[in-house]
Amino acid sequence: GLSARECRLSARLGETMSFFRRNFALAFAVLKAPSETLAKLVSERTLNALAFLLIIGATTALLTPLQVYLGFEDINGLHAGGQAEFLANDVSTMFKLGIEWRPILIEVFYVFILLFFTGYLHIILKAAGGRGSVKDTLKIIAYGDAPGLLFGWIPYFATISAIWAAVIQLLIGPVMIHKISWAKACIIFSVLVGLGIIEIALS
Questions:
Q1: SS3 144
Q2: Taken in order 23, 24, 25, 29, is the CA torsion positive or negative?
Q3: What is the rounded CA–CA span in Å between residue 110 and residue 88?
Q4: Which residue, 25, 72, 113, 182, is most buried by CB atoms nearer than 10 A?
């Protein structure tokens, strides 16, 4: 039979796999029913949201080198994944880093962009009468980026996944969690997405 140590290792492996499966199940739940899923995820710990971002984000982070290798690098700045890819590309070029560094850089930038976006979106939502906490805003951004984190690596589909994520992060999340009106959410969505498009056009 298995030794006690082997049993513990097997149990830990099972727990880890269960944690990964749960996060991917949550990602697809966000895609299928964003309103209901976000309402449930508000009670999640902040660290769980960060873990979700890194675990699901590993899909795009790990597959981006394949996209680059095949010559289909698709840079866009409308969602966290796209911005992370853009910055990772710049840093790789600046420091002459190999393609193997790209996944690590993308994951690091996911975290920095999450924190930055949380700060300025929360200020905007509060100014619009939002009732949620800064932790709620962080969860909206992390979980709401599921489309970009899952599909941001696919050539020519990254922009669609970015807009999909923006709808969840800037429309559905603020209305469901911060309780702002659809009219205010539409204005915030239009302004921020518009600024993102201008940023891309000028880059």
A1: helix
A2: positive
A3: 10
A4: 113
129: left (phi over 0), alpha (psi -120 to 50) or beta: left
Classify 136 as helix, strand or coil.
helix
- CB-based contact 132:37 (threshold 8 Å): no
75, 102 Cβ separation under 8 angstroms: no
Q: pLDDT value at position 81?
A: 46
Separation in Å, CA 126 to CA 37, 123, 153: 22, 5, 33
Instruction: Quote the pLDDT of residue 80.
Output: 38
Low-confidence residues of the chain: pLDDT under 70? 1-2, 72-81, 200, 203
| Sequence-separated (6 or more) residues with CB below 8 Å from residue 54 | 107, 110, 111
b/e burial code for range 134-152 (CB count within 10 A of at least 16 → b) = eebbbbbbbbbbbbbbbbb
